[in-house]
UniProtKB/TrEMBL annotation:
Record-linked CDD domains: NAT_SF
Organism from which the protein derives: Rhodanobacter terrae
Listed GO MF terms: acyltransferase activity
Keywords noted in UniProt: Acyltransferase, Transferase
Domain N-acetyltransferase: from-to ranges: 3-155
The name this protein goes by in its record: GNAT family N-acetyltransferase
């Protein structure tokens, strides 16, 4: 079975929205507002400076995706590429899909002169943490904090 990685297109919106909603439920038990989610995904295609999605296909059928966004680092004078919104359909898990997506991101980031790759993972998701470590990623010495602004659309419970 052949596995290939391609850039996502706006025609992938339905899959990306469904997978993001599934990922939010599986990892955080959060229900995402479908209209806001679709606008959020569309916003990446409308403004490429925000990032890009990749799609993994097995024998021509989409089986997973991820989003890459950018964070400027003044300390390193370069962008970190953040891997986000990772999803692999259940039937394709443990079959090298994420590894292929990651390898593609790593190659693109190196070619673009990025400072490095980053991602965040749920503290209880031991399987994902093991996978990331096997790919050579290291746990950072930082905690993540957030403050949502009042009246912002898309606020989650």
């Amino acid at each position: 079975m052949s596995l290939s990685i391609r850039a996502a297109a706006i025609t992938d919106l339905a899959d990306l929205a469904a997978w993001n909603a599934a990922m939010a439920w599986e990892t955080e038990h959060k229900r995402l507002d479908p209209a806001i989610l679709q606008r959020g995904i569309s916003g990446v295609f409308e403004e490429p400076r925000r990032g890009f999605y990749l799609i993994a296909e097995r024998d021509g059928v989409a089986v997973g995706s991820l989003l890459v966004t950018y964070e400027w680092s003044d300390w390193r004078c370069g962008d970190f590429w953040w891997i986000q919104s990772v999803y692999v359909i259940p039937a394709a898990r443990r079959g090298g899909v994420f590894r292929a997506l990651y390898t593609t991101v790593e190659q693109r980031a190196a070619a673009a002169g990025a400072a490095g790759l980053r991602l965040y993972v749920e503290t209880e998701n031991d399987r994902a943490q093991t996978t990331y470590a096997e790919l050579g990623m290291q746990r950072c010495p930082y905690f993540m904090y957030e403050a949502l602004l009042p009246g912002r659309a898309g606020k989650l419970p």
